[in-house]
Amino acid sequence: MVKISEIVYTRPDKNFILGEFARFKNRFESAHDAQEFYTIHEQFRDFFEKINSNIQLAFIRFTQDTRNEFYAAEKDYLDEIGPELNAASAEIFNCYLTAPFRDELEKRFPHVMFVNLQMSVDANDPRLIPYRIEENKLTTRYSKLMSGIVIDFNGERLPMSGISKYFTSSDRDLRKRAYVAWGQAIEDNKVELDDIYDKLIDVRTQMGKVLGFDGFSKLGYMQMQRNCYNKEDIARFRANVLKYMVPLAQKVRAKVGNTLHLGKQYLYDINVYTAEEPKPIGNPQEMFAAASQMYNEMSEETGKLFDTMVESECFDVMSREGKEGGGYCEGLPAYKLPFIFSNWNGSAGDVDVLTHEFGHALEFYKSFFIDSEFLSSVSMETAEVHSMSMEFLAYPWIHLFFGDKTEEYKFTHIGGAVTFIPYGTIVDFFQQSCYDNPDMTPAQRNELYNKLEKQFLPYMTTEGLPAFQDGRRWQRQAHIFHNPFYYIDYCLAQFTALQFLALSQNDYKSAFEKYIAFLNYGGTKTFTELLDVCGLMSPFEEDSFKTVVETCEKILGL
After folding, report:
1. Mean pLDDT computed over 497-503
2. Which residues pair with 152 in a beta bridge?
């Protein structure tokens, strides 16, 4: 049994890898027929997966402790060589696109793979290498800054991720003080945060212009593998969020406000849905035991994967100083193992992140055995459907984690899903506006963010809270710095996951089978093709909003 902690990391030798890439490129270009090409493909896949697993291992260990000097240095090194390796691999990808027997290859590989490879080739133009290196340095600088912040609060020394355990407290004054402390930490670092984002906007805009675009947006969409919808489709989705989801979110918050007698609702109220916070019961070991029971009863496949991951030490879930905030799931294809990283803090979010990231882990595991996935994996909105839907499909076992607070958790969780979509739409709209107007000053960006919050989150105010009242809440959203244009994927996925919730309420077995079918396709179909083949509604159609809103109102008793 392979254990993640025991895997030996070896610094990737840039010159060796580039030399191997060059040899593979020559072999691909010299292949006489599709069968010879495919034989080379299999060898390249094995080599590529070993290199990728090694790089992912370094990333994992850096995020586990950003103060570790060895892995911090490795992260810097990989930031330096990554763009050159990506450009070299793009040259190999181009061999698939230009092969004289491409028609035969398209019979073996899914068509979408070629669409995605073309975008990858275009987005990894060698001319972008120096800009990519600078971009990597800036995002690493953001990670180190945010993970290094320690907040003295309520007798504890807490990282940025740790203080969030107070955001769902039933004590309103405690919540307020936690948000004030959190906001003050952002306020204290605003100069550096502004500087990092100014430079990111500038370097990304330059990259877009190098490729002949007006700015970064088109390149950003290519990087996010937008292969079946465009900027106009997102604008239409955004308009329907404003028309349908914002009023629904207002109803949710009004019900909460009336029940809890909140009166005017502030930012520190929006994560509270019930009079008493539904917290997980049991210690971490007991929660893992409950999760093992859940996944073994859910299906043989999910149970086997979960228990294998536990035995292989594929979980790092506890919050601590020096650990990067947030959560993620990464794959180590050479070992056929997913790895889950999170920051548990004793709140209901611990269960959310466990089920969410396990949805990703299940997709990773399945995709390890899909031949084309290392060349063209699932797009992010599809991947987020896997994770967000798993959160809802855990409901038959959720009592194992919340006991007599199960119904309160469900209301909190579903209500949170509804209110998340307007927030996530703000994050995307904000980024789109920043890249469309790269000359905006920091003050103008904050003013824009404040304006969007008032439009999409009309039920709450940030008045009196450091940083947040000035429109700086976006600065704690790491995706804005690390993964431009990613966040709308969460919104499209949450919309789709709510459909799986509705289906599971009517016929769980059928809903779970449809979910597994959705996963089994991996990246062999586009997001919209998957929705169609699985009989799900498109988030780009207005009628689907009407149906989803009606379903949510019924479930939430609105």
Report:
1. 94
2. 157
Structure tokens at 338: 């997913």
| Burial class of residue 292, CB neighbours in 10 A (0-12, 13-18, 19+) | middle
Query: Which CB contacts under 8 angstroms, 24+ apart, belong to 78-83?
Result: 78/12, 79/133, 79/136, 79/137, 79/140, 80/133, 80/136, 81/12, 81/14, 82/55, 82/132, 82/133, 82/136, 83/124, 83/128, 83/129, 83/130, 83/132, 83/133, 83/136
Q: What is the pLDDT of residue 165?
A: 87
pLDDT at 361 over 90: yes
Are 338 and 309 within 8 A, CB to CB? yes
From 521, 514, 484, select the one nearest 497 (Cα to Cα): 514
Strand 328-332 relative to strand 337-344, pairing = antiparallel
Q: Is the predicted pLDDT of residue 321 greater than 90, yes or no? A: no
Give the pLDDT score at 162.
85
pLDDT the model gives residue 260: 95
Eight-state DSSP code of residue 318: E
Residue 276 confidence (pLDDT)? 87
Specify which residues 10 forms β-bridges with. Answer: none
Phi, psi (deg, nearest 5) at residue 317: -115, -15
265 has a pLDDT exceeding 90: yes
Sheet holding 328-332, edge to edge: 315-318, 337-344, 328-332
- Residues 6 or more apart whose CB falls under 8 angstroms from that of 223 comprise 119, 123, 484, 485
Contact (CB, 8 A) for 248 and 418: yes
The per-residue pLDDT for range 437-459, each reduced to its tens digit, is 999 999 999 999 999 999 999 99
Q: Are 262 and 269 in contact (CB under 8 A)?
A: yes
pLDDT digits (tens, 9 = 90+) for 170-185: 899 999 999 999 999 9
State the pTM of this model. 0.90
500 touches 512 (CB < 8 A)? no
Residue 424, token pair as written in the block = 């996530």
Nearest residue to 161 via CA among 293, 11, 326, 309: 326
- The contacts of residue 436 (CB under 8 Å, 6+ apart) are 215, 217
The pLDDT, as a whole number, for residue 377 is: 87
Residue 315 main-chain phi, psi, to 5 deg: -130, 135
User: 276 vs 507, which has greater pLDDT?
Assistant: 507
> Three-class SS of residue 159?
strand
Report the candidate in 358, 333, 377 with the shortest Cα–Cα distance to residue 521.
377
pLDDT tens-digit readout, 395-419: 999 999 999 999 999 999 999 999 9
Residue 334 in tokens: 């050479």
What separation in angstroms does the CA of 543 have from each of 286, 357, 511, 549, 557? 43, 30, 21, 10, 21
CB-CB neighbours of 227 under 10 Å: 20
403 neighbors 159 (Cβ within 8 angstroms): no
Neighbours of 30 (CB within 10 A): 10
The amino acid occupying position 291 is A
Q: Residues 281, 285, 289, CA angle at the centre, nearest 5°? A: 80
Specify burial of residue 233 (Cβ count, 10 A radius: 0-12, 13-18, 19+): middle
Between vectors from CA 68 to CA 63 and to CA 71, what angle results, nearest 5°?
Answer: 65
